[in-house]
Structures are given as structure tokens and as C-alpha cells.
């Protein structure tokens, strides 16, 4: 939720979003957050952004968010997204604590990249599976997950699948 609030604080970014795909939307809490975003004008009046949101998940726990007029739900596997009728569908792909369940990370990211609009953004949250303390190290592998992600491994697979990682540079 902290990451969503951080993204929501950038009005110009939020205004630039027309379409959003929530990958592994589960109950639809994040989907509802995106669909109900607004900004304040100069007189502090809320202006709804009306982001067209699509929740993609295999579960049936999405009822509340789909009651909003700008929300659509697709019951399917989010690993196999494909461009429909030559149109890149999403300005933002949001993946909150779902990426660790994919069976083919590289293929999944390539599929996701193919449905993003030019200049689109992938925003994802993955669970922390490693914590180092003074004398203790804690490593977790969550149920039904195939991978755990460190910052380096996640950046690597993103770059390998064709995502731009602007701050990465070749080391001479």
C-alpha cells in the first residue's frame, strides 16, 4: 500500500495513465484503488482520473471492484497475455505480490512487455524473502512459489526480457 500511495503522489504520472492492467488482482483491492484515483485542481476540487482498469486473475474474488464503471475483469492466467488486434493495451501493468507464482518468468515478462503501450511502465511488488540481522539470517520460501527475487535477480530478468532499466550501465 505504501508503494501505491507513493505512485499516487505524482499527479503528472497519474494523469498520464489511460489504461491499467492489474496482474493477479486477487480480491481487487488494488484494482479499486487505481480505478478511483483523482487529482485536485487549483481550487482543491477532486477530478476523477477514470483510469480504465482491467483485473486479470484466475480467482473469483473480484466482485466489489468490478461494480465500478471503469473496471473490467478477465478470468485467465496472467502469464500468457497477448496483444489483441495489434493494440498494445496498457499504459501501466501493476503486479502486487503475484510475480513469485509464475512458472516461466522470462516468458511472462516478454508477454507483459508485448501488451504495454509505448512508454508504458511495469510496477511490481515482490515479497521480501531474505533478511539479515546482526547474527541471524532469515530466508523464506512462500507456499506455491517457484522463485524468490532479489533486486539483482529481478533487474536481470527484466533486462533479459527487454524492459529498459535506465540506471543500469555497462561496467567497463
Task: Give a structural overview.
With 172 residues, the protein is of the alpha/beta class. The protein has five helices and nine strands; from the N terminus they run ααβαβββββαβββα. It has helices at residues 2-8, 11-15, 29-35, 105-114, 151-160; strands spanning 19-23, 38-40, 46-48, 52-57, 71-75, 90-96, 116-125, 130-132, 137-139. A five-stranded parallel β-sheet has the order 5-4-1-6-7, sandwiched between helices. It has a two-stranded antiparallel ribbon with strand order 2-3. Strands 8-9 form a two-stranded antiparallel sheet. Strand 2 (38-40) and strand 3 (46-48) form a beta hairpin.
In short:
The chain has 172 residues and is of the alpha/beta class.
Query: Shape from CA axes?
Result: globular
Integer average pLDDT: 84
Count the helices. How many? 5
Distance between the termini: 39 Å
Task: Please estimate the helix content.
Answer: 10-25%
Strand content: 25-35%
Structural class computed from helices and strand pairing = alpha/beta
Strand and helix map with partners:
Elements: H1 2-8, H2 11-15, E1 19-23, H3 29-35, E2 38-40, E3 46-48, E4 52-57, E5 71-75, E6 90-96, H4 105-114, E7 116-125, E8 130-132, E9 137-139, H5 151-160
Parallel strand pairs: 1-4, 1-6, 4-5, 6-7
Antiparallel strand pairs: 2-3, 8-9
What are the main properties of this structure?
172 residues; alpha/beta; five-stranded parallel beta sheet; 26% strand; globular
Amino acid at each position: 500500500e505504501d508503494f501505491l500511495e507513493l505512485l499516487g503522489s505524482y499527479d503528472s504520472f497519474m494523469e498520464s495513465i489511460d489504461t491499467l492492467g492489474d496482474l493477479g488482482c486477487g480480491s481487487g483491492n488494488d484494482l479499486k484503488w487505481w480505478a478511483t484515483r483523482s487529482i485536485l485542481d487549483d481550487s482543491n476540487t477532486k477530478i476523477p482520473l477514470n483510469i480504465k482498469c482491467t483485473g486479470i486473475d484466475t480467482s473469483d474474488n473480484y466482485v466489489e471492484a468490478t461494480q465500478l464503471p471503469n473496471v473490467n475483469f478477465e478470468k485467465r492466467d496472467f502469464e500468457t497475455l497477448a496483444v489483441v488486434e495489434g493494440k498494445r493495451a496498457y499504459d501501466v501493468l501493476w503486479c502486487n505480490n503475484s510475480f513469485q507464482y509464475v512458472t516461466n518468468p522470462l516468458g511472462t515478462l516478454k508477454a507483459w512487455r508485448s501488451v504495454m503501450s509505448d512508454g508504458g511502465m511495469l510496477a511490481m511488488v515482490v515479497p521480501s524473502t531474505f533478511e539479515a540481522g546482526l547474527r541471524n539470517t532469515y530466508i523464506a520460501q512462500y507456499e506455491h512459489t517457484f522463485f524468490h527475487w532479489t533486486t539483482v535477480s529481478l533487474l536481470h530478468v527484466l533486462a533479459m526480457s527487454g524492459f529498459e532499466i535506465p540506471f543500469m550501465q555497462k561496467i567497463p
